[in-house]
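Tokens as discussed.
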């Protein structure tokens, strides 16, 4: 009987949850898609081929048991589907919303290769866990007997939150130090509400607080809180800061008024979403209303910026990217959403200079590009086309060129903390420990700018490494 509920990809077509109309959704910061109803979720899950080698699982950084929870969903066994999903992911409903599934699980779906369009894995994942929250299936964290070991986690992004949950469940006392006024890191201030409504993040954080995890907000490590003191106060330290330093274009006029960094722009917008008093927005600096906006970059952060500007009521929004659409690093679905909402993409265009008038940005002078032979990443390398160039008017230019690590040894006043030549923390890949005894590091501050799902993976993995190290230290102390 169960087999009749599966392998329907030949007869049942791919169907994503219905999106709100572009004109309507561009007026607010609510998520753009409705959620599956039970029948649609079951039907789309039933399209899974249950293949012998599940490439969706292989290409998921968390190696989620995707075919298993799709099967359970198709059979209407939703609570079991949620429990299976939660075995490998600390926040499946968040991954279901913001993971680039078209590049990971869905992009490697076997039936996609056969020409039948991938199973809508991310949408089903979101549906499963949202249903679990509504029905009370997301249980409180069950903590083991207290070990007496104190752990400091620097950063409350997805990696830090995941490690906090795992370590608390093992009985350790967890203190999270966050330099912002709200927990969540990138999930709270870096991603707009139309991709991730903030209530979804808040309920995860509240669950951690209920488990006894202590959050120290507005904690400036290296300033108010010395890194050396943090090590003395705790048995172990985990650095999970992420990378927040904006990469520069290194062009003339980049420091002019009206040229803004992507993360500053998104953070200010999210603060307005929370209802905060934000003078930098209210005085017009970060408000795109009525302005001609140019965003430089082609990743998911650039997509967040252009779509935010649309919702703020920009007069026009243009995105400049040095390659073509096929070679864009961001999610193809995000590009499509942006196009639907009125964003204009100017392909094969690279900024040469910011046009400045009276000390303020007035536009971008851009080179036209062409694609040459593949570079080291395998993508065709952009090169300047000597026969082309253009000027694009702008009232605000937003730089979304990616992120680099801050100088943590300097910020933390911990020059002994080893870093790589790229500025990332040097950590042993076998156990994620830095060169400092009992200090571990995970996520983008080790990998460089990457995906939320990889930070979650690191947070899950480091939990066991830290626990084993703590036990070994305790054993050594008893032996002495």
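Sequence:
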């Amino acid at each position: 009987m169960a087999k009749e509920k599966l392998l329907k990809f030949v007869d049942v077509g791919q169907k994503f949850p219905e999106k709100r109309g572009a004109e309507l959704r561009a007026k607010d910061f609510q998520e753009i898609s409705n959620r599956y109803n039970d029948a649609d979720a079951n039907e789309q899950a039933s399209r899974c081929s249950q293949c012998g080698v599940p490439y969706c699982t292989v290409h998921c950084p968390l190696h989620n048991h995707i075919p298993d929870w799709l099967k359970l969903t198709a059979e209407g066994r939703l609570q079991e589907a949620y429990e299976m999903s939660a075995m490998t992911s600390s926040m499946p409903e968040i991954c279901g919303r913001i993971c680039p599934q078209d590049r990971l699980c869905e992009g490697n779906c076997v039936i996609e290769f056969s020409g039948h369009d991938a199973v809508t894995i991310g949408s089903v994942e979101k549906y499963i866990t949202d249903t679990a929250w509504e029905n009370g299936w997301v249980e409180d964290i069950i903590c083991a007997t207290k070990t007496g070991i104190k752990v400091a986690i620097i950063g409350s992004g997805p990696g830090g939150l995941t490690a906090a949950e795992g370590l608390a469940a093992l009985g350790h006392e967890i203190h999270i130090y966050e330099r912002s006024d709200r927990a969540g890191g990138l999930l709270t201030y870096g991603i707009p509400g139309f991709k991730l409504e903030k209530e979804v993040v808040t309920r995860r954080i509240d669950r951690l607080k209920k488990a006894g995890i202590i959050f120290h907000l507005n904690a400036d490590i290296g300033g108010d809180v010395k890194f050396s003191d943090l090590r003395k106060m705790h048995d172990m330290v985990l650095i999970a800061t992420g990378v927040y330093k904006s990469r520069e274009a290194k062009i003339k006029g980049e420091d002019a008024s009206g040229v803004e960094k992507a993360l500053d722009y998104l953070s200010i917008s999210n603060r307005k979403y929370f209802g905060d008093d934000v003078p930098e927005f209210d005085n017009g600096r970060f408000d795109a209303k009525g302005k001609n906006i140019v965003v430089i970059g082609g990743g998911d952060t650039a997509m967040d910026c252009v779509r935010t500007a649309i919702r703020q009521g920009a007069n026009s929004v243009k995105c400049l990217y040095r390659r073509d659409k096929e070679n864009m690093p961001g999610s193809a679905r995000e590009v499509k959403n942006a196009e639907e909402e009125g964003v204009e993409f100017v392909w094969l265009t690279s900024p040469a200079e910011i046009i400045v008038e009276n000390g303020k940005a007035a536009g971008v002078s851009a080179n036209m590009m062409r694609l040459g032979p593949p570079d080291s990443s395998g993508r065709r390398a952009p090169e300047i086309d000597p026969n082309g160039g253009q000027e694009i008017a702008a009232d605000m230019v937003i730089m979304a060129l990616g992120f680099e690590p801050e100088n943590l040894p300097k910020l933390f006043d911990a020059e002994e903390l080893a870093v790589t030549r790229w500025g990332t923390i040097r950590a042993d890949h076998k156990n994620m420990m830095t060169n400092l005894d009992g200090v571990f590091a995970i996520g983008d501050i080790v990998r460089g700018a990457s995906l939320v799902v990889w930070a979650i993976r690191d947070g899950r993995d480091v939990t066991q490494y830290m626990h084993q190290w703590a036990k070994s230290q305790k054993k050594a102390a008893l032996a002495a």
